[in-house]
């Protein structure tokens, strides 16, 4: 019961912090029976909260044992039954000083996690769903870290030691639009399950083979770039292209889906890898496209027009309907949104201050904001509810408490919508005043679409004689 209560609270907190958490492939998680979720790990405890809230079943979570060292997370670990794992040393160091996933057998240091592994295997044997982060650490690198072999060892131990057949390892890719920034978006991409039974038993290379399969499965559902600069550049291009290729969208979801941007980014990275094999004409076309795209983006920035608004209807009737519709929405919802703002601004402001003061790297702001936010909000609820109960009775205190979560969610939603409405109104007046500008921007966007389609077609097949596969 406590798990589901905390899961519900965590889902509310995530909805407050992130504007959208979109799940792709959720049906690949079995409704019952033992399974391992293997996820990439680049946002600390938030990764576990996102996966746990995205999956309908109860998930046995794993996390680094250092969470026990922090007073705000120690209680959460104990309350939810998170299995704390210490970073294993079952991989030998490669020549470059990095962990080598093609390791030799376990070293004595694995004794640190022997009890934790046994707990996880027990959960699987009981038909549970377990979340593991095979990278073994949270990081901000633009690609997967070399995988530890713990996930494979646990799966094979459950199969060979406990006779558990039909156990799948399901890759889960977590992509954060801007992981430390409130009101950004998250994509949860559930990949194709890996059949543990397909790996031969009693084979000395079984751990390495299964680890390699998990690595390949995770790469299919994550973005992996050579350098942070490559990541920033390609993600920026993919976001702009996703909007250029889209049409005008409603204010409640103005951006092209994050999954579209990720798909385009993955395709762009594939194209980038093939550039060394491209012809001179194709390379010139790529340079021309990037130049035009940068010029288009800079022009929109100066005009302060979002790319998804360039095809916005600019008739007087459409403008009047916009004003009436948004006015009615604000009139109807503003009182409840203000109630949410009144009751949450103080604890949330305190949480953000604590997060900024205690975060030491890019992996911690979101986690510290969410954890401290939950603590401050719950404490605030308890104090004010007690005051209301003493003043006017417990029934009114209960009504007060029930009103707060939806009011806060509405406050965030309406604030986002009002900001987008402000930008759309600016775009409307700019485009309405200058019909020629409107036509020029639409023609530029169409030209970019055509260029993108031609380049995509050019890279669909590798050049004859190339070895890019």
Structure description:
The protein is of the alpha/beta class. The chain has 3 domains: 2-219, Glycerol-3-phosphate (1)-acyltransferase; 228-311, no CATH class; 316-436, no CATH class. It is built from 13 helices and 9 strands. Strands 1, 2, 3, 6, 7, 8 and 9 form a 7-stranded mixed beta sheet that branches. A hairpin with an 8-residue loop joins β7 (168-176) and β8 (185-190). α5 packs across α6 (206-219), α9 runs antiparallel to α13 (435-458) and α10 (316-358) packs across α11 (365-392). The termini are far apart.
Can you tell me the CATH class of the largest domain? Alpha Beta
What class, by secondary structure content? alpha/beta
CATH architectural group of the largest domain: 3-Layer(aba) Sandwich
How many DSSP E strands? Answer: 9
Q: In the CATH hierarchy, what is the superfamily of the largest domain?
A: Glycerol-3-phosphate (1)-acyltransferase
Distance between the amino and carboxyl termini: 51 Å
Question: What's the Cα radius of gyration?
Answer: 25 Å
What portion of residues belong to β-strands?
Answer: 5-15%
What's the order of the H and E elements? HEEHEEHEHEHEEEHHHHHHHH
